[in-house]
Amino acid sequence: GSAGLSHREPRARQGHGEEGDEGCSRLYPGHIPTSPLQKALLAGGSAVMALYDPYRHDMVAVLGETTGCLALPNLRDKMKHHPEGYRILRERPRIRLSTLDMSRLQGLPDGSLGREYVRFLEDNKVSPDTRMPPKFVDDEELAYVIQRYREVHDVMHTLLGMPTNMLGEVVVKWFEAIQTGLPMCVLGAAFGPIRLSARKLQVLATELVPWAIRSGRNASCFLNVYYEQRWEQPVESLREEIGIFPPP
């Protein structure tokens, strides 16, 4: 059961970690060991840059890793105590072009998760391979949790019916902030609207944010869905299963 995961030691503690430049053990490929002070400096700098340019995904990624010390363990625990989430933690699936059968997904019926996900990628000219791997999370299992969060972000855009423009990103961040408690999401939800026009702000405040908050509170944890095994499921059916209200 879950005891197997809960007692798993990080790779470095098992003697499999790589030594860093200063003798610090690297817990997974690409890991950069950092002190609390270094994390605070990285968090402050990345927050400033992310607010200045919300499309600096590298800075948003650093902010998420250096400020998620409380939210990530909570998300991991939610996954451990859910059958489908527990399978995801054990099997470590990845959503990347190398793991996706794009031809099969394109051939699925309109309205299915797989077909609509590919349509979202094509319409918004985005790729799942642009999601940065974690570097500053000092726990191998939590590093996977934030990697999983990043890789299902576009799936959430698909389920929520939101594009990748600033308005759509803010709405998704409100939903994710309620669901995850990640400071990065809270910051994006709170300060993202600064660049929006008055008309979009009105739509955001009167329709989209209230819907995103209600959906976020009503929905089960979106990390507990094995999306790779749900590509054929209709989007409307999956929304209903998770608890996401129909988009306004």
From TrEMBL:
GO molecular function: lyase activity
Keywords associated with the record: Lyase, Membrane, Mitochondrion, Mitochondrion inner membrane, Ubiquinone biosynthesis
Record-level GO BP terms: ubiquinone biosynthetic process
InterPro entries: Coq4, Coq4_euk
Biased composition (Basic and acidic residues): 1-18
Stretch forming the signal peptide: none
Gene Ontology cellular-component terms listed: mitochondrial inner membrane
Residue ranges of the region described as Disordered: 1-30
Protein species of origin: Probosciger aterrimus
Name of the molecule in the record: 4-hydroxy-3-methoxy-5-polyprenylbenzoate decarboxylase
Organism lineage: Eukaryota, Metazoa, Chordata, Craniata, Vertebrata
